[in-house]
Amino acid sequence: MSSLLVAAIDFGTTFSGYAFSFLHDYKRDPLKISANTWNAGIGQLVTQKTSTCVLFDAAGKFHSFGFEAEEKYSNLALDAQHNDWYYFRRFKMMLYDKKGLTRESLIEDDKGKKMEAMKVFSEAIGYLRNHLLSTCKNQLTGIEDSDITWVLTVPAIWTDPSKQFMREAAEKVGICRDKLVIALEPEAASIYCMHLPVHKDSENSTFGVFKSGSKYMVVDAGGGTIDITVHEVQDNGNLKELHKANGGNWGGTKVDSSFRSLLASIVGEDVIEAFTTDHKYDYLELLRDFEIKKRTIHPTLTEKVTFKVPINLLETFRNENPGGNIKTVVTSNARFKNKLTWTGDKIRMEANLTKALFDESCKKIVDHMHELFKHPNVKDVYFILLVGGFAESPMLQEAVREAFRNKKVIVPQDAGLAVLKGAVLYGHQPKTISARVCKYTYGVETNVKFNNDIHPQSKKVLFDEVEYCGNVFSVHVPVGKLIKVGEPQVEQVYTVIKPDQTGIDFKIYTSNEREPTYTTDVGCTLLGTFTIDMPDTSKGTDRGAFVHMTFSGTEITVTAVDKDDATKTVSTKVDFLG
């Protein structure tokens, strides 16, 4: 059943936003998608996304989100009233590669004060949800919750627990579980590009990319992560993944880090720390000014570039280094001699020094893509779609075009909104992605009869005088396997070990290896457990269950069926946060 309205929230590392479209508009023109416009107070940015910042008051009560939170916190800092408040900025990256993530995991704010991550994420999503609803209701009255399909975006390279964490954060603020779809960011971008009008002559036209049998790589370059998928277009227009999702944390914020490091190498890390703490307002303004300037830096740049730096940074330098002269410090550093001047509140930097701020992230992205193109199922891919906020940077575009001259690199119009708008399209047609490549090996821990020739003595366990080998990894789906979305995978049978056993406990594991032997091997992780009850013990050890896994969307369902009684079935969604 199609919903009247699809509402998507793109929760990014640096910027977040929402978009929506009504079913009647989608049928006429799929790209008739509404997005909100936000105004940043300082710096006069007008954008279709707002800053990913959340502010809580001293009592831990939610106060504001986005540019509004930035502005309020800056003003509190000016009045030295900000110390008891909680301010979280660019906090999404805590879910990237986080080991041991639970529902109770804590997150540190701007000054190291801790709060439950679930609360921070859910309040942020809740704010965007409510903002979206009030905008929609202005366009169409009488919209009920049951009329809306919600879509929340997450990076494809995230682990299963991180994806589930985002889902639960959304459910906490009243988004109904069965009306919520999780979209993988590069997949959403892919679907958006599919719908773009084709002009044969423009450099960035998607002409030929989406014909049947065509293969292309989507590089979703955001603020935090670079998320890469490779797709092949099927005869029916759906998309099949050719290589497992991959990437790393080399997004646009790496450029900001390079700029901060450059400042620290002039004035010293201690001065930067003191400035950040004592002049919060100026620090936030510095970041926002840099954000705007960063977008204008171009590979063909030959002129010097002027960066505005708050005068308080110089003041802090003088306080920490009495008698110190910034000009002397700059000229005595070989890296900056004749390349950088610092006068009052302005730094002038030579073009090459400015462009070098992009080197680290661009190099990591390009190197990773080179490695990907060595894979047999990726090497003949011709099209590269560059999307995401960082994809709008001419520096990254040039780096990718230079590195892959034999490929066609396409940067679609509105590259920074491709994920958000694609998420809306995905909500209308979630079956567009028909098959994905498994990112891990999935299986169940089991015991098998002990064999002295192959099993280590350390794994020997006794059950009713019978020797078994424990911790055996029974593989259900190997890493790299192409899985059709929603189709049950290979079934395995498991039996009871003891005649009086009244159930079987299943422990579900993942591994990075294709053929792990034991669940204790390096790279194996326990995902979750579930039980099938077998209260009737009259058949002794001649009892068991068939188990299979189904991968649908971004969730995994495990089903166990009693081998003697098909009406006894247990189905459970794997709880990755248990």
Radius of gyration: 27 Å
Strand order of the largest sheet: 21-20-14-15-16-22-26
Structure classification: alpha+beta
Strand content: 25-35%
Chain-averaged pLDDT: 91
Report low-confidence residues grouped into runs of 5 or more: none
Tell the overall outline.
Answer: globular
In whole angstroms, how far apart are the ends?
32 Å
Q: What is the helix tally? A: 14
Can you summarize the main beta sheet? 7 strands, mixed
Secondary structure tally: strands: 32
Binned, the helix content reads 25-40%
Keywords: ATP-binding, Nucleotide-binding
GO molecular function: ATP binding; ATP-dependent protein folding chaperone
Organism: Crassostrea virginica
Pfam family, one: HSP70
Briefly, what is this?
With about 575 residues, the protein is an alpha+beta fold.
Describe this structure in words.
Helix 7 crosses helix 9. It is globular and about 90 Å long. The mean pLDDT is 91. The chain is α+β, with helices and mostly antiparallel strands. The chain contains 14 helices and 32 strands. Helices cover 28% and strands 31% of the residues.
